[in-house]
Amino acid sequence: MTVVRGAAFIVGAHEHPRRDIPDLSVAEIHAEVALAALADAGLSPPDVDAYFCDSDAPGVGPLSMAEYLGVRSRYLDTTETGGASYLSHVGHAAAAVAAGKCHVALVVMGGRPRTLRLASGPNLSGAPETHYETHWGITDTVHNYALAAMRHMHEFGTTSRQLAEVKVAASLHAQHNPNAFLRKPVTVDDVVNSPMISDPLHRLDCCVMTDGGGAVVVAGAEVAHRLPRQSVAVLGHGEAAKGTGSDLTHTAGVWSGPAAFAEAGVTPADIDYASIYDSFTITALMALEDLGFCEKGEGGRFVQDGALLAPHGALPMNTDGGGLCNNQPDNRGGMARMIEAVRQLRGEAATEVQVPDCRLAVVHGSGGRLATRSSAATLILGREDA
User: For residue 244, what pLDDT is reported?
Assistant: First the structure.
């Protein structure tokens, strides 16, 4: 599927403001963020003719939720690739809009892993690989990511203090986000002195676990241009998967990133802002390399000296605090990454972290498990006049 540049736009977006939601069902969270995103766009459920959600959506996925919201859809998508799912959904929605399959698509996620005390990461019960991997000790998501981090350190000399820079930048941004789960700034020393969870990853190298949700609305140019809110153009999209037989030090972003940049007709040097899924500090660092912001193995040096800090760092990243400090509902970070990129391109991020004249953003999500089988999806988004 190909996105025709300028054919599809994100016209509405909303992130649930709460991070602990014991009093709502998952269906109610879906409904709240969906209706708020539509209101942000100046639309309502009868305007929607396509519905996108992941496999954790309540009931019979889009069938149940579309009926619940009063949406009469002619296009449905439940692509499931973990934290990359929602970026894939937007790419698929943009392609469907460009092909005339639908006009207004609603992309929704929501979950309550904090309230329900759910384990992080994908549910591998019954998966063909489960017994092989658990036999050798990969029994939890953090062990898998630690394996990739350790190999990266061995191959390239990356250090725990360099990984910590990703968390430090996220925390310095999160202090300006009133809804962030963790708003206290931390230092490199704080990160490397926090308890070791799975060597070499410390507690502060790991993302938060929150309840919450978010939604975006994707529409064609004809709809977007008649709405009062500033739209964000979907310029490029790429997605890929990586299997166990691949090198531990790269992600599927080595394929999804170049595809998205090529489709958009831009390069990493053109990007003003980056929203990168940061389930762990190593996740973001490896993604920056694989997307082409630095050479493979140079990620540790790239993130040093405030490179990720907004508004004037070399590559401002995750200005809402990211998954490391702000929000990671349902163990999936892609939706929140898209929403903050929309804020940046609209000029609506927190004043202290708003990137001046932000015109182009990359959004990147990953899913699965970094050291074994994983997914990646990349979007290039632009200001409507970019």
Answer: 75
